[in-house]
Design brief:
Chain lengths: ~70, ~80
């Protein structure tokens, strides 16, 4: 993967904000979950070009992982 | 020190910026930096978020070096 790091950071924050909205949790809680999630590792490592997926798709993936871990 | 929570998307984006760029500078995973800023210390809630208005006007290099100084002052290691 060779994604622009600045664009990737902006994408992370958009996905976290959308995930917080989907799940109805605070931005702090969403940030906390994001950095411990498998979804983050997949995006960061460029697995299956996850970083190319839409913000909505990635936020939904986070939501599913969050709900599965509850 | 006052612990503040992230109030909006601009502060969230800045928090991610700080975590990712410190990780890049140190050559470690951003998750470890996040844990250093939240579990090993309260740098996120007591420094990055409250000082957002001042810090975010500075250059990336200044912000990263400033955060490394704060980590050293507080004895936080990644």
């Amino acid at each position: 993967m060779k994604a622009n790091p600045i664009l990737l950071q902006k994408k992370y924050s958009r996905v976290i904000a959308r995930f917080a909205e989907y799940q109805g949790i605070s931005l702090d809680a969403a940030l906390d979950f994001f950095y411990r999630s498998e979804v983050y590792q997949l995006i960061r490592d460029g697995v299956s070009d996850m970083h190319c997926m839409s913000d909505a798709y990635l936020a939904e993936e986070l939501k599913q992982e969050y709900q599965a871990k509850q | 020190m006052i612990d503040e929570t992230i109030k909006n998307s601009r502060e969230l984006e800045f928090a991610v910026f700080c975590i990712e760029n410190v990780a890049t500078k140190l050559g470690v995973d951003a998750e470890l930096v996040y844990r250093a800023f939240t579990e090993k210390s309260d740098i996120l809630g007591s420094y990055i978020v409250p000082e957002y208005e001042v810090l975010h006007t500075q250059s990336r290099e200044y912000i990263v070096n400033d955060l490394l100084d704060v980590m050293e002052e507080r004895g936080v290691r990644v």
